[in-house]
Design a protein that fits this description.
Blueprint: H1 3-10, E1 32-36, E2 42-45, H2 47-50, E3 61-63, E4 69-71, H3 78-84, E5 90-96, E6 101-108, E7 111-115, H4 119-127, E8 140-146, E9 152-158, H5 159-172, H6 180-196, E10 198-199
Parallel strand pairs: 4-10
Antiparallel strand pairs: 1-2, 1-3, 4-9, 5-6, 5-8, 6-7, 8-9
């Protein structure tokens, strides 16, 4: 994700100047996103421009699906998490077609920070959670949130949602522990994800359900 792409989540949105980055038409607060696979830039788009591009591999520009799944009983052991070497409680994982592999990033006050991913461990985690294994490359991610009291939840979301969380952390985080305002923003973000997501029952095999 480029600095220009991330900036849209850091700065307060001005509805009267937000426009489609493809055609220039005005956008509402809720709008689609398209990824430039080569530059990793994330573009805000109107509905007609969003519909011009596919979700799947084979194109330079890919539209992000509007698929939100929530797996509250995500299987991730303490050993798995230690081997993944993520230093914070939240991280997101997506397949980068340019690199030809899955990458792991986590939100930090400095922005999206990449963590070296032990691929064998990640494959083991996916094998334990087959309902979330069908993730579209480059446009969808698995966002994992470790609960402070133990256990994990996982969300299958458009990659743009992960960068929205990154922007909130960067905007609100203060000091070592983040401060009350940052955690209110993070808790609000996950509450909204749960509200709009379909819940994946334990052991379910979730397929492509967004109709495209």
């Amino acid at each position: 994700m480029t600095a220009t792409g991330l900036r849209r989540f850091r700065e307060p949105r001005q509805a009267d100047v937000t426009r489609c980055e493809m055609c220039g038409e005005p956008l509402g607060e809720v709008h689609g996103h398209v990824v430039n696979i080569e530059s990793r830039a994330l573009l805000c788009t109107c509905r007609p421009c969003h519909l011009l591009f596919p979700h799947d591999a084979g194109a330079r520009y890919r539209a992000m699906p509007d698929r939100y799944l929530h797996a509250p009983s995500f299987r991730l052991t303490e050993t798995d998490w230690e081997e993944l070497q993520i230093p914070v409680r939240t991280a997101f994982f997506f397949h980068n077609s340019t690199l030809g592999q899955t990458v792991a990033l986590y939100p930090s006050p400095a922005g999206a920070t990449e963590s070296l991913l032990p691929l064998a461990t990640w494959e083991r985690v996916l094998a334990a959670n087959p309902a979330l294994a069908v993730v579209r490359p480059d446009v969808e991610a698995l966002l994992v949130d470790r609960h402070p009291g133990g256990g994990s939840a996982c969300y299958l979301v458009p990659v743009a949602a992960c960068y929205e969380l990154v922007g909130l952390v960067r905007l609100h985080w203060k000091g070592f522990d983040g401060g009350q305002k940052a955690w209110e923003a993070i808790d609000g973000f996950f509450a909204e994800l749960r509200r709009r997501s379909h819940v994946v029952p334990p052991g379910a095999a979730e397929g492509d359900d967004d109709g495209r």
